[in-house]
From TrEMBL:
It comes from Prunella himalayana. This is INT5 protein. It comes from the Eukaryota. Residues 29-145 form the Integrator complex subunit 5 C-terminal domain. InterPro entries: INTS5, INTS5_C. GO terms for cellular component: integrator complex. GO terms for biological process: snRNA 3'-end processing.
Length: 147
């Protein structure tokens, strides 16, 4: 419920077209979402990880408007919480098989160049700050870039 409410708020304040950059009105609410999830992560890390991954995969195959904002929302959560990033990053890398990569490409192909560059910048920043599964992530990047 926390993630769902956070995503709705993110969408209501321009998250879908803003590439995930936080506006003044949204910062306190997304900070609350991060705080609540951080508190819950100590006892419910598996459930949180499962829900984050479910949201990610569900959003890629959906044309619904709030699903377009899901990946930027999840990226913003990861930027604000190293705990959430560490919780989900190893399994996310494992799930990035060719069909999922194609869905991601289709999902972001309609973004204007500056927004796409912003998303890529966030992803690179997160990759540089990920310690959990770093070797797995590096192997994935190398295998994907030069199959």
């Amino acid at each position: 419920r926390v993630l769902s409410c956070g995503l709705k708020d993110f969408c209501a304040h321009g998250g879908a077209e803003g590439g995930g950059t936080a506006g003044d009105k949204r910062v306190p609410k997304i900070a609350s979402v991060v705080g609540i999830l951080g508190h819950l992560a100590s006892r419910h890390a598996g459930s949180i990880k499962q829900e984050l991954l479910r949201m990610f995969h569900e959003s890629l195959g959906s044309p619904r408007e709030h699903h377009k904002a899901t990946v930027p929302f999840l990226l913003q959560l990861a930027l604000m919480s190293p705990t959430l990033l560490a919780t989900v990053s190893p399994e996310l890398v494992d799930s990035l098989q060719p069909p999922v990569l194609n869905q991601l490409h289709q999902h972001f192909s309609s973004l204007p160049r500056d927004e796409l560059e912003g998303v890529v910048g966030v992803v690179v920043h997160l990759l540089c700050h990920t310690s959990a599964g770093a070797l797995r992530t590096l192997r994935f990047l190398l295998a994907t870039a030069a199959p």
